[in-house]
Amino acid sequence: MATAGEWIEGARPRTLPNAVAPVVAGVGAAVALDGFSWTRSVLALLVSLALIVGVNYANDYSDGIRGTDENRVGPLRLVGSGVAKPKAVLAAALVALGLAGVLGLVLVAISGLWWLLAMGAVCILGAWFYTGGKKPYGYYGFGEIAVFVFFGLAGVLGTVYVQAGQLSWTAFGCAVAVGSFSTGVLTANNLRDIPTDIEAGKRTLATRLGDRGTRRLYLVLVAVPYVVSVLLAFVTPWALLGLVTAPLLLKSVKAVGGGAQGRALIPALRDTGFAMLGWAILTTVALAL
Predict the structure, then answer these.
(1) How many structural domains does the chain have?
(2) Residue 111 to residues 117, 163, 263, 288: CA-CA distances in angstroms?
(3) Where are the transmembrane segments (predicted)?
(4) Using CA atoms, how far apart are residues 287 and 232, in angstroms rounded to an integer?
């Protein structure tokens, strides 16, 4: 049986900034619209965290039973490494996704925006079919688009709307920035896994673009949020605080741009996630000021 520590590692805690940053940025945009609510913010955060844990366990299960993770370079995979039974990991995924659904239902009931149930259902289905089902879209090069939509647009704009009841150009800017960061994390991950994914028949966007194209995509993605910071400075000059996080990416940009391979790319995932979270926090402070 897997230990508690292995279950925690299997949940991929390094990906949690992808769940926290959209809500934090959404809170900032909601504050700018005078629509902030502690209760709704906390519920949105819990939904986002439950979703990402659920998708991580679902990914572990689906990739594990397909044999995709047998030679993967990176953090522990519960099924692929054999430390946990597939059914146990599947159960963990369903519990996390179910919890996200229940918390989302509470959030919708409080806000009265019942049509958001449809968006919540799409998010849960997107989490499962990323690597689950007979034709998972993550195996056909659509994972990056899904991450941008779910952890960028839906995460940020949903957080804003359940609080303020409206959206703004500032909210859209934050959504694009966080979505680009989050997609950058996945791009760095898939860049690392190009050799093993090709061997396993997993046709990610990285395998389609190739090594050089994927590296260029990553560099563009991590530049976008800082362009957004400059644009948000027309709303409030305090938005330039987001630029403070750029040095966190120096090692990642050097590694990706310099041709690093395999385990040498793992820190890029961590640093991109930290830069995303830092950007979201500082931008929220800026919008509050």
Answers:
(1) 1
(2) 11, 8, 44, 22
(3) 38-58, 88-107, 113-130, 137-161, 167-188, 217-244
(4) 9
pLDDT tens column, 63-75 = 888 877 666 666 7
Please compute the mean of the pLDDT values over residues 108-119 and round it to a whole number: 93
One-letter amino acid identity for 218? Y
Residue 4 lies in a domain: no
Average pLDDT over residues 215-243: 97
Full domain range(s) for residue 201: 21-288
Closest CA to 55 of 89, 22, 6, 23: 89
**Is 1 contained in some domain?**
no
Q: Which two tokens stand for residue 76?
A: 């522990």
- Evaluate whether residue 12 is within a structural domain: no
Q: Which amino acid is it at 8?
A: I
Q: Which residue has the tokens 């938005």?
A: 239
Report the distance separating Cα 123 and Cα 100, nearest Å: 10
What integer pLDDT is reported at residue 49 of this predicted model? 97
SS3 content of the chain, % helix, strand, coil (to 5): 80, 0, 20
What's this model's pTM, rounded to 2 decimal places? Answer: 0.93
| Separation between Cα atoms, residue 267 and residue 255, nearest integer Å | 9
| N-terminal to C-terminal alpha carbon distance within the chain | 50
Please report whether residue 14 resides in a domain: no
Fill in the amino acid letter for 148: F
Query: What's the sign of the alpha-carbon dihedral 196, 213, 189, 260?
Result: positive
Who's near 286: CB < 8 A, 6+ residues apart? 28, 232, 236, 238, 239, 240, 241, 242
